[in-house]
Amino acid sequence: MAYISAYSSYIDLVGPYTLEEVDQKTLEFRKSMTTPRSVAENASEFEKIQAMVYSTAMKVPVAAIEFYMDVRHTIEDHIRGFAEPTSDKLLPDLEPQTQHIFTLVLDLNETLVYSDWQRERGWRTFKRPGVDAFIEHMGKFYEVVVYSDQLPMYVDPVLERLDTKGFITGRLSRPATKYQDGKHYRDLSKLNRNPAQVIYISGHALESCLQPENCVTIKPWKLEADDTQLLDLIPFLEYLAMARPADIRTVLASYQGHDVAAEFIERSKEHQRRMQEQKHQGRIWRR
Predict the structure, then answer these.
(1) 47, 142, 209, 267: which sits with the fewest CB atoms below 10 Å from its CB?
(2) Which helix (H) or strand (E) is 26 found in, with range?
């Protein structure tokens, strides 16, 4: 029963390891088990038969290991096809004359729209207050991309109705996300854009993106009629687009823990106050 013991040891071994590690750790075992067992020339017939039976028996765990590795490789390839974004370059290359433009990545549900289902009428999608003006204005300053975790059959029709003027130049849906720990994450590293020039806005930004340093979180929209979150962000985003900081992530880090739109207004007021003080002091010195 040596082969059963060997196979049991193998099962205990492979649990926590990657396929490549399993291959490396079992290589010597597989080689030793497939190497014919030497038998002395003067060995008895019983000893020769015993060696032959042993060699044959040892091929069983080796075959089991190789079968396991083949099956696991197939399964992992299959899973990887669902778990990883469909491409390492989700967006086409920028033209040389547009490479200075920042990329504004927007979530869809509870950020730009809200979808509601009721038995008597099915699904209905509502536009967030100010979304039309927001998208149109941002389209003048940014490359605007919508990156959703919903299926294309939902995303495409919604964006067709939402973006009738074509300001949204990139549309990414669930196949472009990374599936990890039971959730679909936006992976900004796959956008084919300089990460220093990418900003992601969502009602669930930190929960849905693998690059928190590029995130701006706003209040999720759930049909509140008096919502102004998108319009409130316009001054901040317009400033960023015009100032073109070397690394947008450094700017966003300075707003960590704050309501970005409100904090930007406060900082702008403070800046204006200081400018007024400097002007006033200048007048005093000239007198």
Answers:
(1) 47
(2) helix 19-34
